[in-house]
Design brief:
The complex is a heterodimer. Chain A has 6 helices and no strands. By secondary structure, chain A is mainly α. The longest helix of chain A has 34 residues, at 11-44. In chain B, strand 2 and strand 3 (169-176) form a beta hairpin. In chain B, helix 4 (57-67) packs across helix 5. Chain B is flat, with a radius of gyration of 25 Å. The chains are: A mainly alpha, B mainly alpha. At the A-B interface, helix 3, helix 4, helix 5 and helix 6 of A face helix 1, helix 3 and helix 4 of B.
């Protein structure tokens, strides 16, 4: 692919860009490989991922991260509490007050919230 | 990840949905950080929605429905399958409509203390009729008067208020605003204190029911005879 992309370029540009194209191509292959591995894990180990993927804008990556982060969904008596756990809203009873515990919780769940 | 999903929903590639429209409305309100706030709000909704989907009844029943559908009552199975067809976005829209409806119903209770309605629009079914599969009549009818109060989260009680001509009990439903169980219980208690219906028992066999019917050939066994206080 990188050779094909470099066809129309001048010799000077080709000399600089071809190694970069090759790097990108190799990265794309790695990403594809990881995606396939992730799909396999989601299908075989976490069937709930398929359920969560019903929501548009939620793909395997988001759903799998969510499932791994939440672990046991039944530990939240109300679905709203998930928002607090992920650091997307203040925790119950913390309105207007600093809460060091929340700060640490935010760090823990930062990946999922982001 | 949630914020990433929210960005996609609100962005140019996001498909039209209630969640997107709601998020965009928040962003258009203006003010400092309005867009950031909208993204955070949509991300939060998304996290809550995913949790609801995960712990919802569909997920619980999906496995059993596939393996042993014959163990389900046909009506229950039909309802579960209908529910499974609802898309996640329609579900979000439904949740939002429900909360709006709940708000307006709550406002209505600013001008009235309680609502009194029949518990069911039709007489109750016998155990035989209730166990019939497929049902002899749509169970939706039995729930017509109670379902709106359940869905709106209202404090509701059903108390005995008489019997049909065939001897089946009739319920009186008293509903108040959410979290106002005390008012509803006080009203129910006051009604029971002034009436005797709670002391009467319906017949426990079909024979007794038939005898209690006004069409029975035995005058002494009619409703008044059986249920005289």
């Amino acid at each position: 692919v990188s050779e094909k992309l470099a066809e129309g370029l001048s010799a000077e540009l080709r000399e600089v860009l071809v190694p970069l194209f090759k790097e990108i191509e190799s990265l794309n292959e790695h990403i594809k490989e990881y995606d396939e591995r992730m799909e396999k894990i989601a299908k075989e180990v976490y069937p709930e991922v398929a359920l969560l993927k019903q929501v548009k804008a939620v793909g395997t990556q988001i759903a799998l991260t969510y499932v791994l982060m939440i672990e046991d969904p039944y530990r939240f008596p109300k679905s709203r509490e998930v928002g607090c756990f992920l650091g997307l809203r203040p925790g119950p009873g913390t309105l207007g007050r600093a809460n060091p515990r929340r700060a640490s919780a935010k760090k823990e769940t930062g990946i999922c919230a982001r | 990840m949630m914020v990433q999903g929210a960005h996609y929903i609100l962005g140019p590639l996001g498909e039209d949905s209630d969640l997107r429209r709601w998020g965009r409305k928040l962003a258009e309100r203006g003010g400092k950080n309005a867009k950031k706030r909208a993204v955070a709000a949509v991300a939060r909704k998304l996290a809550v929605l995913l949790h609801r989907l995960w712990v919802g009844g569909d997920a619980y029943h999906a496995e059993f429905m596939a393996k042993t559908p014959e163990l389900y009552n046909s009506w229950t199975l039909e309802r579960l399958r209908t529910g499974a067809e609802v898309t996640a976005l329609a579900y979000i829209g439904g949740l939002r409509e429900t909360s709006e409806l709940r708000r307006s119903v709550r406002q209505m209770f600013g001008s009235v203390d309680a609502l009194v309605t029949p518990t069911a629009p039709i007489p109750p079914r016998t155990i035989l009729e209730a166990n019939a599969d497929p049902p002899t009549r749509s169970p939706v009818l039995d729930l017509r008067n109670t379902a709106p109060f359940d869905k709106n989260g209202l404090s509701t009680i059903s108390i005995p208020c008489g019997f049909t001509s065939t001897g089946l009990p009739i319920g009186l439903q008293i509903s108040g605003p959410p979290e106002c169980e005390a008012v509803v219980l006080q009203l129910g208690h006051a009604y029971e204190e002034t009436t005797e219906w709670r002391k009467r028992r319906p017949p426990t066999s079909l024979e007794a029911l038939a005898e209690a019917s006004p069409f029975s050939t035995k005058p002494a066994a009619r409703l008044g005879g059986i249920f005289s206080t």
